[in-house]
Amino acid sequence: MGKQYESIDGRLRAFIERQPVYFVATAPLAADGHVNVSPKGRSGTLVVIDELTLAYLDFGGSTAETIAHLRENGRITLMWCAFDGPPTVVRVHGRGEPVFRDDPRFAGLLGRFAPDADGSGLRAIVLVKAERVSDSCGFAVPLMDYRADRDLHAQFFDRKGEEEFSAYCEGKQYVGTSIDGLPALPLPLPLPPRPVES
């Protein structure tokens, strides 16, 4: 039986942090717009900041529908499924915003992730404020074994310098503008913050 929670408590937080994959759903306001669902993974690229706040790293390599929808209306749902252990599904409905690389908050948010989590191809950090936290049974979710993260994404973008990555983003369809014509990633891509010299 499903239950709603006031916050991402310790048990839910542990469950979320243990899952190797999760899904992000967003939609435009237009009734004929395209709903988007994206799988996310890559160890260390999602953090629970506090009982109602999460953040994840947004990388290049796909379109920018999530960013476009968040810029337009902020609605977002994140979902985790247990593919092993007790059958559980956790959803966080909330408001999200993309924090771009030239945002003064970017460096501080990035510091909350593991030092090697950002990697090449980082476009933005998506900050999510939870408005509804719930779980439900995962009785129909199949049991599957996790083997490892794929490293193809990191390998591909590790070969690109900052200028080449920016050109890649500018040349890829549906990155600056969504498939519904909404503003998505700002182009040219904002430069990342410079490391603080000690």
Short description:
This protein is of the alpha+beta class and 198 residues long.
Number of strands: 8
What CATH architecture would you give?
Answer: Roll
> The CATH topology, please?
Pnp Oxidase, Chain A
Whole-number total of structural domains: 1
Query: CATH superfamily membership, which one?
Result: Electron Transport, Fmn-binding Protein, Chain A
Beta-strand proportion: 25-35%
Give a verbal description of the structure.
- The protein is an alpha+beta fold.
- It has five helices and eight strands; from the N terminus they run βαββββαββαβαα.
- It has a single domain, classed as Electron Transport, Fmn-binding Protein, Chain A (Pnp Oxidase, Chain A, Roll).
- It starts with a strand and ends in a 27-residue tail after the last helix.
- The mean pLDDT is 94.
- It is globular, with a radius of gyration of 17 Å.
- Strands 1, 2, 3, 4, 5, 6, 7 and 8 form an eight-stranded antiparallel β-sheet that branches.
Attribute tags:
198 residues; alpha+beta; Pnp Oxidase, Chain A; 8-stranded antiparallel beta sheet; 5 helices; globular
How are the SSEs placed, and which strands pair?
Elements: E1 3-5, H1 10-18, E2 22-26, E3 36-40, E4 46-50, E5 53-59, H2 65-72, E6 75-81, E7 88-100, H3 106-110, E8 122-137, H4 152-158, H5 162-171
